[in-house]
Amino acid sequence: MSRVTSRDYRHPYRPPGLGQIESLLGRWSPRLDPEALVDEARRRTRLHRFDGEPLAEPLARLCRALEEEAQLTWTGWVLTHARLHGALASRLRVQACFDAHPELAQQPVDAPVFVTGLQRTGTTLLHRLLAATPRLRALASWEALNPAPADGWSGRWLGPERPRQWTALAAEHTLRFLAPDFFAVHPVEARAPEEEVVLMDHVFVSQVSEASYHVPSYARWVEARDHRPGYRYLRRCLQLLQWQRPDAPRRWVLKSPVHLEQLDALFEVFPDARVIQTHRHPRETIASFCSMVAHGRGVFSDQVDPPEVGRHWLPKVQRMVERAMATRDRRGEERFFDVRYPELIADPIGAAARVMAWTGDPLADAEVAALQKWMTKNRQHRFGRHVYDASDFELDEAKIDGAMGRYIERYGLV
What we know:
5 strands, 57% helix, 20 helices, single chain, globular, Rossmann fold, mainly alpha
């Protein structure tokens, strides 16, 4: 029998024995001190220079919210410390590559394809399906965590890619161990395509922390920030990754729901981008996403409040679609292609073929066969069945329809 996810969000899963270990070691949780984190990253990498994007204030804001609001377990503290240190080290290594190879800044990033849409509307399915075509390149999870070539002894002995892949595999297995339910909600696989927001989060102005922790003060601060630094950093990392693998396809297919909220910043940094927006009725998506958030928070904290998750994310997703509709009205519809979830599920390969034709790269027969092979290998529910209900988050049809009415009407969602 396949795994069925828990709806007891207030009592997150803990592997046997972990609770006892946490009770013993919790008093020695590492502090999330931004200056100490920066110093540690510089010491371990033996690099000093960061890029010119903002660093001190975003990192300090995030660390303060994590300290004061997130109610992290000992395991949560350790994982978060490692995540922040990894992001800082990655930025140092990326900058070192650009310092050593100034020509990297001249690498073109031509007409990338961005898949976006509200969470749980089929963005992952469509993205991974498009990534299976030989002419498009997706960002792998191991590249998102560490876009710069491996350095030091591991890079010399194992090559520029293998140490980064092993790091991502370790992260994958750690998450499987700590939260097996999460893979039934959203699989995180080291060698599979990953959302570029993981990489953009290295600038510490993104939705990643808001979706992973209870950090309301930081979430409010991020909403008011300029998000162009994250997109500029993304572009630099794509240039670096292209340079490392010149034989790979030159056109990127990327994906994240967060782009809905920041389409103007996206188009400013990627003026020739093409955007695919997926649509599904919010009654079917919001509860599913709230469940995903609750499962994710349970990795880091024992204090998960499902009604609070619902109160936070319903107005948030409303903001996302309202901002996306406003951008589309200003910039024109020719930049966008819409894919409805029922059509995607009924005929995934047909939906991918329509997208590829719209981007100017129609699928050949051999590529259709590649997509069929991918679909056979990646069947739904292979990690278990995700179950959820809006009532778990004190949401109902009236609340959802009231908040999302304009979006539902505009796209004729039923």
